[in-house]
Specification:
Blueprint: H1 2-19, E1 28-31, E2 42-45, E3 50-53, E4 58-75, E5 80-92, E6 102-105, E7 129-130, E8 143-144, E9 147-151, E10 182-199, E11 206-224, E12 227-234, E13 238-241, E14 246-249, E15 252-260, E16 268-278, H2 281-290, H3 293-297, H4 301-304, E17 314-324, E18 331-349, E19 352-372
Parallel strand pairs: 4-9
Antiparallel strand pairs: 1-4, 2-3, 4-5, 5-6, 7-8, 10-11, 10-19, 11-12, 12-15, 13-14, 15-16, 16-17, 17-18, 18-19
Length: 374
């Protein structure tokens, strides 16, 4: 992780160095070694967000300089170890401005300077000579570019480059929390659903209404590694008894299972699934009738086709994020999901005034809350 931060830090600093200075476009050629050409086939244009294909054998554009970066590999007090990497700072002729600089490792380039005997030797071994694109190998048009050396010390809190403000790359320190073998979820949410407001026994007249409502959930259960299994109780949302027009909350209880993925930027993505029953009086009556053979026999066959007395099974699923807070007090959690609720309604049939019938209400919801279990 430390090496990656150093590389990112180096790249940003080099870009700032060049951006602090003005430059004039020139027309050089950079010959790429055959084994490295695959890395330079495409070029990204920041203005148009378009990826273009270019000749990766010979890049055409402006060579600004060579940068020699010395960066730490081992910063222990006993043995400070550094490594050096050289880059060619290059702006492709297809790019609109200096914001699109490329840092090309020098080992990917066929350097022309050391091969030309007519050039006077310099302290850099002539690696900083680049040929003109239109007049390759012509000693009169070959151009020498500056070589800049940068050393990144093990501890650097004040170094400034080209009079720019110091750049600090923050590190992300995630809370190291010890999860226990249980979890408790407290959630508040809002649901959007389509409800049937009014109907008749023959289903000829039906009136529907789009609705939204707030609700609260509490869940608890056992946790084992990435798995969690428990129960959830919800206040539910108001749903009509469409045969008589009554409107009241339908609480429900569900088996609740969840699966956590590995940490991602200190967040823990999870999936969850639910399975159970609404626990209002009418739905519980429907459940009793559904499992009672004697009750089923009391309902005339011709009436059974007009309503549903099957088991009122509800279910749901969703996905969300747990975000551990400092000191591991609890996780801040939010999720989105879908629930299909089976609820009971009373209808007059077969000489009874309160025969329960099943209806299904589908809803989408968003929840926000906390998860305990440290």
């Amino acid at each position: 992780m430390k090496k990656q931060l150093v590389k990112i830090f180096t790249f940003i600093i080099l870009t700032l160095i060049v951006s602090c200075s003005s430059f004039e476009r020139t027309d050089e050629a950079i010959r790429i070694k055959p084994e490295a050409t695959h890395k330079y086939n495409e070029i990204f244009n920041r203005d148009s967000n378009f990826v273009a294909i270019r000749n990766s054998n010979t890049l055409r554009g402006t060579v600004l300089k060579i940068v020699e970066v010395t960066k730490p590999v081992d910063c222990t007090a006993e043995n400070e170890l550094f490594e050096t990497q050289k880059y060619v700072v290059f702006l492709d002729s297809l790019q609109p401005d200096i914001k699109s600089l490329e840092m090309i490792p020098i080992e990917d380039i066929e350097l022309i300077g050391p091969k030309l005997s007519d050039l006077p030797p310099n302290e850099h071994g002539n690696i900083n000579w680049f040929e003109s694109f239109n007049n390759p190998l012509d000693p009169t048009t070959i151009r020498e570019v500056p070589v800049e050396k940068i050393k990144i010390p093990c501890k650097d809190s004040s170094t400034k480059f080209c009079d720019c403000s110091p750049l600090v790359l923050p590190t992300l320190n995630c809370p190291d929390c010890d999860y226990k073998s249980y979890f408790v979820e407290l959630r508040g949410g809002i649901a959007a659903y389509r409800d049937r407001k009014l109907t008749d026994i023959d289903m000829i007249q039906q009136v529907y209404e789009g609705r939204s409502a707030y609700f609260g959930d509490i869940a608890a259960g056992y946790r084992a590694e990435n798995w969690g299994l428990g129960v959830v109780f919800s206040s539910g949302v108001p749903i009509y008894n469409s045969f008589v027009g009554d409107d009241f909350y339908r609480p429900f209880g569900l088996l609740h299972g969840r699966w956590h993925f590995d940490d991602f930027f200190c967040m823990r993505p999870f999936l969850f699934g639910e399975f159970g029953l609404a626990v209002d009086d009418i739905t519980l009556d429907l459940f009793r009738v559904a499992i009672c053979e004697e009750c089923n026999e009391q309902i005339r066959i011709e009436d059974k086709s007009k309503f549903d007395i099957s088991l009122p099974v509800s279910w749901g699923l969703g996905a969300g994020l747990d975000i551990p807070l400092p000191y591991c007090w609890f996780d801040l959690s939010f999720d989105i999901g879908y629930r299909s609720l089976a609820i009971g309604e009373y209808v007059e049939a077969s000489g009874f005034s309160n025969v329960p019938s099943k209806r299904r209400v589908n809803m989408f919801f968003f929840r926000l809350g906390i998860t305990l279990g440290y």
